[in-house]
Amino acid sequence: MVGYIRQAWLVLGLALLFGVALAGVDAALKPRILENARVARIAAAQEVVPGGAAVTEVPALPNVLRVDDAQGRLMGWAVEGSGQGYADTIRVLFGLTPDGQALTGLVVLYNQETPGLGNKITEYEWRKQFLGQPTDAELVPVTRHSGQPREIDAVTGATISSQAVCTIINQQTLEPTPQGLAPSRLIATLADLAEQAQISPDAPAPGGRAEPLPVTPDDVSAYTGSTPQKKE
Q: Fewer CB near the terminus (10 Å): N or C of the chain?
């Protein structure tokens, strides 16, 4: 009986020890993890908005980044969104023109979709379909393209993953009204901010940081649309 009690206390002691150790590792690595996620997001923003050189946060819109060129002119916006895929959450970042009326790019920041099927949503050959798509109507994944605008060829054998990406974008750019779908409040807000930027092009990003968030070309190449990988 005494032996069992000793074993129980030993197990409890080890559990406590490992728990404290894991908490310490988490506390030590959390800042680095958050910084890596921030860098990945900024690098992706430069990818989805052509001509982007400086990226600034917009606190009033926590899921939006403003992207300027080297002269400080507004080039567009990078919007983050997420939704349920086939296997797990899919998280994307897509670019918009300054007025929010069209898509300029798409990157998949995170996915756990089936290798060789659903995770093909990370490939540029599939993502490039979104370039130039207008935001005033739903994007629709199809298995047979009829040539209609806003149709997105679904990945063969992975219609759920394809639908998830389209839905994530649609939910950010559109909202239901009694008359049907209409541009979302986000799109209207971005158009207003773009108008302000044209009136005063040298002013800091509305609500954004005074200094651009730093990111290097290596960061851009390290995050090209799939789950971020460790650099060698």
A: C
Give the whole-angstrom CA distance, residue 21 versus residue 17: 6
Q: In what order do the strands lie in the sheet with 74-84?
A: 54-57, 64-68, 74-84, 89-96, 103-110
194: left (phi over 0), alpha (psi -120 to 50) or beta: alpha
Which amino acid is residue 105, in one-letter code? G
| Dihedral sign for Cα atoms in the order 43, 48, 51, 55 | negative
**Residue 31 DSSP class:** H
pLDDT beyond 60 at 211: no
Q: For residue 35, what pLDDT is reported?
A: 75
Label residue 210 by pLDDT band (50, 70, 90): very low
Rounded to whole angstroms, how far apart are CA atoms 11 and 13?
5
Bridge partners of 77, per DSSP, are 66, 96
The whole-angstrom separation of Cα 141 and Cα 167 is: 9
pLDDT (average), residues 71-82: 95
Distance CA 52, CA 147 (A): 31
Q: How far apart are CA 203 and CA 213, in angstroms?
A: 16
